[in-house]
Amino acid sequence: MNLANHESYLPAGLPIPVAEADGLSQPFWSALRENRLLVQRCGHCQAWQFGPEWICHQCHCFDPQWQEVEPRGRIYSWERVWHPVHPCLKERGPYLVVLVELPHAGHVRMLGNLLGDALQEVVIGAEVQGVFEHHEDASPAHTLLQWRVAK
Amino acid sequence: MTERTLRGRVAIVGIGETTYYRHGQSPDAEFKLALKAILNACSDAGLDPKDIDGFASYSNDRNDPSRLAAALGTRQLRSTTMQWGGGGGGNCAAVANGAAAISSGLADCVVAFRALAQGQFGRFGQAPTAPTISGDMAWQAPYGVLSPGQKFAMKARRFMHEHGVKQEALRAIAMASYEHAQRNPRAVMYGKPLTESKYDDSRWIVEPFHLFDCCMENDGAAAVIMVPAERAKDFPGRPVYILGAASGSDERVAAVPHNTPNYASASFATVAPNMYRMAGVTPKDVGVVQSYENFTGGVLMALAEHGFFHPDEANEFLTLQNLLSPGGKLPLNTSGGNLAECYMHGFELVLEAVRQVRGTSTAQAPRNDVALVIGGPMVTPVSNLMLGSEAAL
């Protein structure tokens, strides 16, 4: 599933994610552009790792491989943000952020917004489905991974 | 080989601070604030500032030791230590690093300090406004997770979920700081009491944190003077000894984004036992605690990790009555702390622990031979510090 730019959950103007100067997370952000979710997995010891690093934290092999995983998981924690700390959020009103764990990828976790009503009840443990949110008009164009409660 | 410890080796003989201001309100430059706090600490100790030969701070404090030494005309500069890591997690470690320099013979008289003028240099609670972002914040900022409160609410929520902790427990922590601040004329919130209904009616910043669960931002400076324990009695005040200290964090706390294995934690799982081992005391020996409130949820987890209650018993333990001096089981943040005295990046908590051991707090705890300070929960590295009287040695 993906969303076009005009449907983005938060307004334009927030910092745009780009890879570090050394390119460590470039494969992740590039894959999101193509509706694919990548997570590091060590080819030697099979340990999952996210966020990325140049070394596997378990066996110390360098350059862990990137593996595509299904963008689904369950809510590990959440927060509803009311106080805007960025100028572009002043008129937005409350919004939801979820911490999602991916049990099929070594329980790695990632943050995203929970789509839908910002005042909805959020249940820790609920199954969620990833949604690729494309920001084509942004400069640079980029894609975020958002989440919605699985039906 | 002698035992490797700080226990009983170093004494704090002077404390000093500036007036505490709301953020942006300091009439003085940040460097001037640092100098004033250091001079006040020297005055408290009856010490010639030119005898200082070491400086210790944390969180990339901008006030460089060489400039301080030149400004004060110190006779020589020996130890200069900076605890890595942002946030207030280094408040206790700065003291420990300075004490370690003394204990190991690298210096004889170290000042540990922190100075902040946020009007001069910008605030902590505002978002980065650069157009692009990389690294740790790239996984968070595009989703509106921009400020410390927004990063840490997620941890507190998970802990509250796992252990059934209610909002009232956080409220009790906030109210204890405000209650104690009403007795402390230094406190920025002196004369501004907090009631249950005022807390309940206050706006959400980020659930589960109301406005009063979040620290202030302030301008000011604070400092402590340390010397070898054997010199402690050359100074006029009641000596306060370092019993133990620790810093760091447990396994992969810095795994981004929010991939810390032990997630619902204030980062003290290993740091608390390490400190207790050095101090040679148990939680039952501790008479009073200063626990850094960036957010009340951090205090909740930090106190549990320091063994004052089982996480599942947080609701029973964290009542206002239990946290107030002098009658409570565990008087907490007796100067008002980061919430209501001053957000001096947690260094005001070190000074308050010294006052408690001296017996000079405005909210004096009856059991004051062993006093704990807990720094910057939820960041990495965090740190803690156990202080004690001569009777505790």
Spell out the blueprint of helices and strands.
The complex is a heterodimer of chains A (about 150) and B (about 400).
Chain A: E1 2-3, E2 16-17, H1 26-33, E3 37-41, E4 48-49, E5 65-69, E6 72-81, E7 95-102, E8 108-113, E9 127-135, E10 142-149
Parallel strand pairs in A: 1-9
Antiparallel strand pairs in A: 3-4, 3-5, 6-7, 6-9, 7-8, 9-10
Chain B: E1 10-17, E2 21-22, H1 30-45, E3 54-58, H2 65-72, E4 79-83, H3 91-103, E5 110-116, H4 118-121, E6 132-133, H5 148-163, H6 167-181, H7 196-201, E7 204-206, E8 209-210, E9 218-228, E10 240-248, H8 271-279, E11 288-291, H9 296-305, H10 314-317, H11 320-323, H12 337-341, H13 347-358, E12 370-375, E13 382-388
Parallel strand pairs in B: 3-4, 3-5, 11-12
Antiparallel strand pairs in B: 1-9, 1-10, 2-9, 5-9, 7-8, 10-13, 12-13
Helix pairs in contact in B: 5-9, 6-9
Salient structural properties:
heterodimer, A: 151 residues, six-stranded mixed beta sheet, three-stranded antiparallel beta sheet, B: alpha+beta, Peroxisomal Thiolase, Chain A, domain 1, ten-stranded mixed beta sheet, two-stranded antiparallel sheet, 13 helices
Structure in a nutshell:
The complex is a heterodimer of chains A (151) and B (393). With 151 residues, chain A is mostly beta strands.
Description of the molecule:
The complex is a heterodimer of chains A (151) and B (393). Chain A has one domain (2-149). With 151 residues, chain A is mainly beta. Chain A has one helix at 26-33; strands at residues 2-3, 16-17, 37-41, 48-49, 65-69, 72-81, 95-102, 108-113, 127-135, 142-149. Chain A is globular, with a radius of gyration of 16 Å. Chain A has 1 helix and 10 strands. Chain B is an alpha+beta fold. Chain B has one domain (10-122, 215-388): 3-Layer(aba) Sandwich (Peroxisomal Thiolase, Chain A, domain 1), CATH 3.40.47. Helix content of chain B is 31%, strand content 18%. In chain B, strands 1, 2, 3, 4, 5, 9, 10, 11, 12 and 13 form a 10-stranded mixed sheet that branches. Chain B starts with 9 loop residues before the first strand and ends in a 5-residue tail after the last strand. The interface between A and B is large, with 39 and 45 residues.
